[in-house]
Amino acid sequence: MRAQVETTLRGPESYSLARRVVDEMQAANVWPTPVNFELWLHYLGDPEGPLGREIQRLLAADEPFTDAMSDMLAAEYLPRGRLSEEIRDAGRVLDRELASVADAISKAHQSQSAYGDTLADASAGIERVENPDGLKTLVTTLTTATLKVQNENAALEKKLETSTREVAKLREHLEQVRRDAMTDALTNLANRKAFDEHLSAACEAEDADSKALTLAVIDIDHFKRFNDTWGHQTGDQVLRYVASVLARVARHPRMAARYGGEEFAMIFPSESAGTVEAALNAVRHEIASRALRRRSTNDELGAVTISAGFAQRKRGESASALLERADAALYVSKRNGRNQVTAADVLDKAA
Predict the structure, then answer these.
(1) Where's the GGDEF domain (predicted)?
(2) What span, in angstroms and rounded, lies between the C-alpha atoms of 70 and 290?
């Protein structure tokens, strides 16, 4: 699965996997382009996944690994490729609807122009009417022209209603695509991209209203031990468990994200350092209080613990500097025995 590959790429196995990818690509006469390299990373990182099985099928059939083949596989199986294809599809739908509306408006404009000419002719001709038959012909012409304009307007109104519904559905679809692009597939928390954007916006908001902003960085203790002992699937189970606890605590306006690997981050707008520390300790106690079991075998995994560090933003401090101070506090928690929360302000005072 993709999340398993992402975890592997941020661990000690990543370099050996990357070297193996290059060797396997060379053996298969596949050029090491960026797209091919990403495809083969996912293939070798998860050979039993959908992409892995498809590449194995192509290799067994001795099909050439062309650029067109790579693009097709990326669009079908890689998250960024699927996202790009979704956006392209949305663009095509929008272009079609806009062209259709423009055509309907053009026809209505032509009809209105013709109707204006008809009214002008009727106005000039009414003075020349000399008998009832001539008047009747003139009224019939005006009635026919009026009905035609009414029908054109009705068709335009119907087309606009249809297009409005289509564009609303398209907007909803694109919003879902945007949410998917900002969500970590394994934990359903915000991903790194969403976190970076949210933190940047939170810093700007704090500069505008002078309210406190606190950033916490959280790391699962001895996570490598879970992966090495029980495998990546059990490691994924641990990640999901920790994420579920963070998600319950991170109610709006708080925000929790998977920062990378076994590391998470939380943003606390407008909260005191004491409140943030209490919330992090509550998370720490809840996670440690439950003994996890391996789903496949029901073996007991033991307790999971986390370490955390947090920092309150200083006036005008950049997002990267704030993150660096929170990280420093996290590593103090690690060095001091893990399973604890450290405030960066304490380190600043000690320094």
Answers:
(1) 211-346
(2) 45
Closest CA to 89 of 173, 183, 175, 180: 173
Round to whole Å and give the CA distance between 311 and 47: 41
Catalytic residue, from 38, 262, 271, 277: name it.
262
Residue 262 is a catalytic residue:
yes
Cα separation values, 315 from 44, 203, 209, 211, 322, Å? 47, 9, 11, 10, 11
pLDDT single digits (tens) 245-254: 999 999 989 9
* C-alpha span between 296 and 177 (Å, rounded): 33
CB contact set of 347 (below 8 Å; sequence gap of 6+): 325, 328, 329, 332
The rounded distance, in Å, linking the Cα atoms of 285 and 278 is 10
Q: Is the pLDDT of residue 205 over 70?
A: yes
The architecture that CATH gives domain 192-350 is 2-Layer Sandwich (3.30)
pTM here? 0.59
Q: What percent of the chain has pLDDT over 90?
A: 28
Residue 267 in 3-state DSSP? strand
What's at 120, amino acid-wise?
Answer: A
**Over the chain, what is the mean pLDDT?**
80
Helix H, strand E, coil C: the string for 186-219 is CCCCECHHHHHHHHHHHHHHHHHHCCCEEEEEEE
Q: Give the type of residue at 257.
A: A
Domain boundaries, the chain: 2-77, 82-181, 192-350
Position 52 pLDDT exceeds 50? yes
For residue range 336-348, list pLDDT tens digits in order.
999 999 999 877 6
CA 137, CA 145: separation in Å to the nearest integer?
A: 12
Q: Phi and psi dihedrals of 231, rounded to 5?
A: 100, 165
- Residue (of 102, 118, 82, 92) closest to 159 by Cα position: 102
Contact 306, 333 (CB under 8 A): no
159 close to 100: Cβ distance less than 8 angstroms: yes
Burial of 122-150, coded b for 16+ CB within 10 Å and e otherwise, reads eeeeeeeeeeeeeeeebeeebeebeeebe
